[in-house]
Design goal:
Length: about 475
């Protein structure tokens, strides 16, 4: 689909025939990840049609699970998966159950229901938005990237962001920490999860400092969302979701773990995601776009001259090891958040470019005149990163703010949240035989292959519906 500025569609008598309602998701604050540790709503499992789905259960070795059933479902399809086997994993400190995805399973984003018996207890667990089925591994990922909202204060921006994600139809979305103001705030979790569960694209959540109960302790996160650090493997793409803790640095143990992972996957395209950045505000203030280093020891000068983010100030050894991990293992893209302002730069090392992107995100508290924003980044399976896609059209490394705007900018009048407006009329809930769609893009930015989903009455055969004008594909 071509660039959207103003676009209208009308469906007479569906792209989709549904009898369900599309009312707003009302989220409860459930401890989703107490028993099922993988996949969860924070990190859906990518799996091919006909492939093997892995489910990790937090059960002791003497509590062997049996009598499994597992169903994946979304608003269009439902499939029962064939149980394959179980095994106890010392590495994961729990049981792993494997299931075969049907060969004819349609591509899509699914929720999961799993039932089993263990230790005399019958479990019946629902894990929303936790399975991502593909027909083949992608050659390109269109990654929508953001971080920071801190509900309840950030809820207006978070809500608008989710609306735009569902329209823009990225391959996947990553939210990089500070989901809630405090982990003990029930209202914060309720508002965050309400919109998180409205997402219709595979979405991954990283932990930020605001999800910590105290230094080193994030029990609420672990019970609701799951792991604090993990990896995502999607064909030839490897995402490292690392944890900078409550205080903004990471241990040597975690860095060594990440090093083992990347060395086991030398040919994969590697992207590192962590909440606190490595490079700090001085990069932005001095408008530095390129840092050239000839050896890893050049980091010492960067550190001593104040170019490294302040949370690493007492952890030079760890920061240098992380820098070494990135440059010596071909991790070409590093995505960070936390600062609530854009900080972007490139490091050149041995003829290669390494991109460090810290985006303002969608928090309630940004610097005066800063825009809340996100990124829509194109990454290819051969390792190519479309550098222009790191920024808002026409922007560059030092032309701040340089993300795709969600709002006008803090304290700028007149103020507006949301520059991509769209709606369905009269309603889009499966009750009508005719529904129209209109979108208006006020941004100077190209968006392609947007998602338009018509929900119309199912009492008329699919063949009798017509889309006007006829789209390129549906």
């Amino acid at each position: 689909m071509n660039r959207i500025k103003t676009l209208s569609y009308l469906i007479i008598l569906a792209l989709l025939l549904l009898t369900i309602s599309t009312s707003t998701v009302i989220a409860e604050v459930k401890f989703y990840a107490e028993i099922v540790k993988y996949p969860t709503l924070a990190y859906p499992e990518p799996v091919l049609s006909g492939g093997k789905l892995e489910v990790r259960l937090a059960l002791s070795q003497d509590t062997a699970p049996t009598d499994f059933t597992l169903t994946i479902y979304n608003e269009l399809n439902e499939y029962e998966l064939e149980f394959v086997k179980t095994e106890f994993s010392n590495a994961w400190k729990g049981w792993i159950a494997y299931f075969k995805v049907p060969e004819d399973c349609k591509e899509g984003f699914y929720s999961m229901k799993i039932a089993f018996t263990a230790g005399g207890t019958t479990y019946d667990i629902e894990m929303p938005n936790s399975v991502w089925v593909l027909s083949e591994w992608p050659d390109k990922i269109k990654l929508l990237y953001v971080g920071d909202t801190k509900t309840p204060g950030g809820e207006p921006y978070w809500k608008e962001f989710v609306r735009e994600v569902n329209l823009l139809n990225p391959t996947m979305m990553i939210f990089n920490g500070d989901e809630v103001e405090r982990p003990s705030m029930r209202t914060a979790w309720k508002l965050f999860l309400q919109h998180w569960l409205e997402l219709r694209v595979p979405s991954y959540a990283g932990i930020g400092n605001h999800e910590y109960d105290s230094p080193g302790v994030a029990k609420t996160w672990e019970r609701i969302m799951g792991y604090r650090n993990y990896t995502i493997v999607i064909g030839n793409f490897l995402f490292l979701m690392l944890d900078t803790g409550m205080e903004g640095w990471m241990s040597l143990d975690q860095i060594k773990w990440a090093e083992r992972v990347v060395k086991e996957n030398p040919e994969k395209v590697k992207i590192l995601v962590m909440h606190h950045p490595l490079f700090g505000y001085k990069i932005k203030d001095e408008k530095i776009d390129v840092i050239e280093v000839s050896t890893i020891d050049d980091f010492d000068k960067l550190f001593d001259e104040g170019y490294i983010y302040g949370s690493w100030s007492g952890h030079k050894e760890e920061a240098k090891e992380l820098f070494k991990l990135i440059l010596e293992n071909d991790i070409r893209l590093v995505l960070c958040a936390h600062t609530h302002t854009d900080v972007t730069n490139m490091v050149k090392y041995k003829g290669k470019e390494y991109y460090f992107i810290t985006t303002a995100g969608v928090p309630y508290d940004v610097r005066e005149f800063d825009q809340r924003n996100f990124r829509l980044i194109s990454i290819y399976a051969n390792g190519t990163i479309d550098v222009k896609s790191l920024f808002y059209d026409g922007k560059s490394w030092t032309d701040y703010p340089n993300g795709i705007p969600l709002d006008t900018g803090e304290a700028i009048k007149p103020y507006k949240i949301g520059y991509i407006e769209y709606y369905y009329a009269p309603v889009n809930d499966g009750s009508r035989h005719a529904v129209s769609f209109k979108v208006k893009n006020e941004l100077d930015h190209n968006f392609y292959d947007i998602n338009i989903c018509f929900r119309v009455a199912a009492d008329v055969d699919f063949e009798k519906y017509k889309i006007i004008p006829e789209p390129e594909k549906y």
